């Protein structure tokens, strides 16, 4: 079934892409025009055999990020460019965890704008020297992509800022969204130039490229694709306000592995998938996964680490030792508290300064002793928000210094100039406490860097004598690194009084306690560095892609609604042509149909069969070669009323507890139950959960009680269902009943009542009529129907069927099942049954015509 989640992008993202061949010595440069997206080849994209290799290397990882890990400098004579590695780039640092035998190719933009005439030469230089593939974007397109959609819309929203007014974050702008789509498509073209999809792993980084996975999956159905989000992922209440929310979610689900820093971020993502796309997740053997059209999308939760070797090498520099000695002399007899933050609205610099002011007011004994050194890194974004943060920070620092300062003492030192790394590290070394009060931050590695620097080395230990190695952290509970720092003092940065008290606690804590906390943190940070993080992610990505080769897959959907269906080779779609052909050439047919969710959608409020369904059933029942059995969870009175027009239809009510042979027969029970006293125990428990779960209800049947929560809040309903299941199993442990959960329901029924009984009854009925089935069709949609599939499978392996029997066990949707076939939804099922009914009608017509001809001759 082809669906389309965003109609305006039909023309924007479809069609033909440039031809992709083997990578030669010179890479072709993808021509780009602002606002225009080149198109993908729809036919090739949807083909199972679309994964034609475009390069020949193996054991490669293609790392795709917004920026390449390079620094570019124009030569003094203007004759070209000089390039060097950016040692501070995370994308470069993660190579430490990949091993020497793995080739790494980088794809991204350069920080500097390269003239159009120089782009080919620069591309070749970067490929040959650095194995980097630059993505050149026109300045206007880059501005609308990065400073527009990324920084004005995604970044504020992911940090919980809603655009309630034009001054509070950027309102959604479809032109900026188109620029975002265009840039992601250009990045996809670059990946296609170098990828060998059979062997290469592709690792995409951060929110700038969230829809890139859709373009890549569309071109290469079996691509090995991972994504890591370095920012927070907001709760569903925040995220659902984004007009293109479904497109971004579906794009991420085109990955094999999605990584988050914390469980909270992953939980929010899973909640959004559940509430907006109706997808559920499962946890198995420590791994969390979402089933998406037959593919399992794995979820990885692991915070990134720091580059330990880089910090230690800078700690060993003579310049660092000199700077530490200088700072120790400068802050002699002072206690230094340190803050290192970017100058933006989410880092909480002004809140930190207010907490310092409150700290000095409440603890006058620290006046003249405690100094807050706030290093403000240049802002990555731009606009009025940044200017307001700067203005407020400067004015607050000035007020504190005027109020509490004295000759030779400034309680707040605000450093807004760019510092060398060794200078910044020197401040880490001499600081007694590090303060991180961000109101929202994806990860924040400042505390990790502080811990390593406080560990120091022998030369720095000599300067810091006689103090033992210790460190103290006051960190916001809203940053990604907070859960991993169990020894830190966690604070709500909005509570200025609490932060002030935390500062005093950090400074007055005993040396022994500080040392113990430092040792605990150091063990974690030193063993969970960036190399460990990268290696762990790629190991999980390899595991997630392990079954790619043996599965069948094909793509469906248009534009950003594209997704890949992946199936086990033995689990395939039931095509009408095949089953109708088998139906026509067989004589003894057993047809077993589930009703709820199979012939009638589960989401339908009116469950009564329509005239089309009744006509199909009548046509099938009139065929003398058929025995048609319909099974439902509904009570027998309802089924009697609904299917009164179907005289020859066999019915099973309440999942097989009641069975009726035809309209002239009485309802019979095939599981003798003499005592229903358990209902008096179960019903009050269900009523309790119904009262506390809005949108739930109880369905009382003669043989069972069912608690439905289809219209309740998905998360709360699921949680309540688990509690109810445990509660009922506990109170009914000595009763002859079974308690089961299914899709949006919890049911209590007598033991032995299953739909498998209906399948057994159907087969025994055919045996009584000396009909050896040569055609068997069994269709169901949920867990309760698996019992029917099991009976049919076992009978097929025995002697219950003809040796040449055609057996079609079919489930609704793609999911783990004992059935070997599937159809997408009730629409496809009704269409298939209509095909069978038409075949029966044609046979009846031919038979009647032949009879008429014989009578006419006589």
TrEMBL record:
Keywords: Glycosyltransferase, Phosphoprotein, Transferase. In the C-terminal section; belongs to the trehalose phosphatase family. In the N-terminal section; belongs to the glycosyltransferase 20 family. It catalyses: D-glucose 6-phosphate + UDP-alpha-D-glucose = alpha,alpha-trehalose 6-phosphate + UDP + H(+). GO terms for biological process: trehalose biosynthetic process. Pfam families: Glyco_transf_20, Trehalose_PPase. Its EC number is 2.4.1.15. InterPro entries: Glyco_trans_20, HAD-like_sf, HAD-SF_hydro_IIB, HAD_sf, Trehalose_PPase. It comes from Platanthera zijinensis. The keyword Transferase applies. GO terms for cellular component: cytosol. The keyword Secreted does not apply. This is alpha,alpha-trehalose-phosphate synthase (UDP-forming). GO terms for molecular function: alpha,alpha-trehalose-phosphate synthase (UDP-forming) activity; trehalose-phosphatase activity.
